[in-house]
Amino acid sequence: MSAITLAAPLAGWAMPLEDVPDPAFAQGLVGDGMAIDPTVNELRAPCDGVVLSVHRARHACTIRAASGAEVLLHLGVDTVGLNGEGFTAHVRDGQPVRTGDLLLSFDMDLVGSRAHSLVSMMVVVNDGFTVDGRTVNREVAAGAPVMTVEGGTAPAAAAPAAAAGPAAGPGAGGETAERTVRLRIAHGLHARPAAALVAAAKAHPGAVTILCRGQTANAKSVVALMGLGTVANDELTVRATGPGAPGVVESLAGLIESGLGDEIVEGPPPAAATAAPAAAPAVAEEIGPPFAPGEEVLLKGTIAVPGVAVGTALRRFRAAVTVREEGRGAAEEERRLRGALDRVVAGLSDAARRMPEHAAIFQAHQELLADPELLDGALADIGAGKSAEWAWSRAARGQAEVLSRLADPRMAERAADLRDLEQQVLAALSGREPSVGLAGVPEGSIVLADEILPSDLAGVPAGRLGGICMVHGGPTSHAVILAAALGVPTVVAVGRQAERIPDGASVIVDGNRGEIRVSPPAEAMEATRGAVASRAARREENRRTAHEPCRTADGTRIEVLANLGRVSDAPGAVTEGAEGCGLLRTEFLFLERQSAPSEDEQYRQYQQIADDLGGRPLVIRTLDVGGDKPLPYLPLPKEENPVLGLRGVRVGLREPELLRAQIRAILRVRPAGVCRIMVPMIASPAELRTVRAMVDEERARLGRAEPIEVGAMIEVPAAALVADRMSIVADFLSIGTNDLTQYVLAMDRGNPHVAAQLDALHPGVLRLIRQTVAGAEVLGRTVAVCGGAASDPMAAPLLIGLGVTELSATPAVIADLKAFIRTLRIADCRRIAEMALSLDSAEDVRRLVTETWPDL
Length: 856
Ligand code: PEP
Ligand code: MG
Prior knowledge:
- It is found in: Cytoplasm.
- This is phosphoenolpyruvate--protein phosphotransferase.
- Keywords: Cytoplasm, Kinase, Magnesium, Metal-binding, Phosphotransferase system, Plasmid, Pyruvate, Sugar transport, Transferase, Transport.
- Residues 176-263 form the HPr domain.
- 35% of the residues lie in helices and 19% in strands.
- It is an alpha/beta fold.
- α18 links the parallel β30 and β31 (709-714).
- α8 (372-383) packs across α9 (388-404).
- Mean pLDDT is 86; it is low at 154-173 and 268-286.
- Bound molecules: phosphoenolpyruvate and magnesium ion.
- Magnesium ion is lined by residues 680, 715, 736, 738-739.
- The site of phosphoenolpyruvate has 11 residues, from β28 and α21.
């Protein structure tokens, strides 16, 4: 006989099971144990052991301890009905875990508002164990010892009560009976109905098993029953052996049919995993006919990347394909579908060759297309008289639906891939080339799209695109940042009228005014071409002096560095006059791939950039994912409000190995003095202190004697307000105006409805910048700006007037920015900045700046 102590899997108020607002748990039907009303959203392992099963709805998980005790951890009451929404599993069936390992996490607001209660249970569900020594009716910390479980012996003797397979019992080999019934409860055999079935099965001395979809489970084990992953309308076969088996089978089958205490749902059997949803593919919403050739139209949107471009429209809409339902003969439709698939596969191979660093994505897409169930599903519909488009769309959506319901977030991610492939094949069927990114578009094209994604721009060479017009999108999205790096004038949030612009129409993208002019008169096209050319000439002129250090007209030194988002950007930035890199967005290394880059791979890329910068400073921002930049291989909990959730340093602190590997890669770059580490989304000095401690530890491990500067990004308003305290820990501060503006104005930077007002020149944002500078001055720390405002010439005099001495801008604007700064006098900048602080709006501030510097 041995005893194990279980640690609290959650922090919160510990309570006896009798107080749980769920009769099955309260009466001990599921097992004996305790409950906790949680104050945290992470469920951790109460002991060392192995994960027996994570429920399909990710709200419950069972661990088998070395003693053989099977411990069910069940988050909340009536949470199975959320079907996984709000829950994230961090472990898989069969995975060994140590006490304190993260098992499940959940969105407290979402689950709290939708479930009956958040009270969570920890119960021992198998026989042969007794629970003792519970700590209840008090607050407990996660990890505190709270319960003792006696029983079991050596690990080897642990009986696999939950294992699939017929359970042997005293009556094995005697009378046998079985009956198949339909399970008519909404959420399958979750904890409560499983417990009811177990209680009834245990009354029978012989073996009782349940068979479902080819799997067998011991009906006397809650875990085994839950592990079957049953859903409503599944067929269950009850099998019993031993004396009185027929009566037992009858009574258990009746119990199952009556719902085992859950409400009965009526309805047809669910679609098989391969079945597509019944609904026909949606037909595009009517937005009006395409604009007639030569029809002059002005569309208004939001400024995203300044500059003006003149060119020819190239439509790259993802969703505007109208689908004809009726086919023109099965043989013809099958031929069309197979042809389209071949073209998409060829396009993917081509893309993998052109972008070897992203090859894994394209290979994964090819694998998905090769799935026989997908093709078979489509061919079945074609055989029934449907068109290739209709059949393909239905099959792809059906598969996407199935994938999106899977508990494994990595698999659920593939649903998005399928939606993408659905569109690519539809595009190929409509006779257009299936598009993979924008790398191959004709030079100078004005690309029209619902929304450009970062991956679309991943392999695009500088100078290829003329301009971008998006139906949706916000001005500070990461795709826009890439567009800015490429110097492509971009207008976003134009609305669906942009879909009416025909392919090949003449278009002017005015990124300075946020306008799209369709088929303007020939004179306007000419005049704009002239203006674009003279601006380019001025830029050429400015580029000649761009390599000289930058000072205002009265001698104040302002450093102008570049924001970089990929390795290949560095040489071009130096050519443009960058004095170094003030923000390396390292996400480029982590996004759009199937696993995290190794420390070595990171080191090589950082070293390459440092080499390309030729000894100039390189500020490397640690990974800033989460929010709008999810990583497929880093499952984060589904958050209702991701930009206020796990982003930036919060992810790094939660996944310390990821952060430490990146820190080590940066520390290895030579010469030792060139790199600085910058940490995103810092809200308080303690976070930076933790990262600094990691840096020091890794530095010691690598035996690196030279210190390295560690700075904080000021993006969270609280960080700006405590800049004096932050400066005690930080060697430098760098203001991320994109996020700072979003958080100060409470406007989502990706939301087109508020995009027009999202302006860093709002006096509220400017006041926080002043406060940051004032706080940093106490200890003489440098304040840089690396957000979009640093690339906006109108912001430059204000930022300089507020005391910012370093601007990190998109490379394309550096030459013009330096030339403009050289014309400024610091006294004017201070005066205008002071006036701007007491204005009412960003609009007023912009008016003040243009009145003072009319040439802007
Ligand atoms: C910012 O927020 O201003 C910034 C520079 O970071 P990112 O745009 O990458 O979020
Ligand atoms: Mg940011």
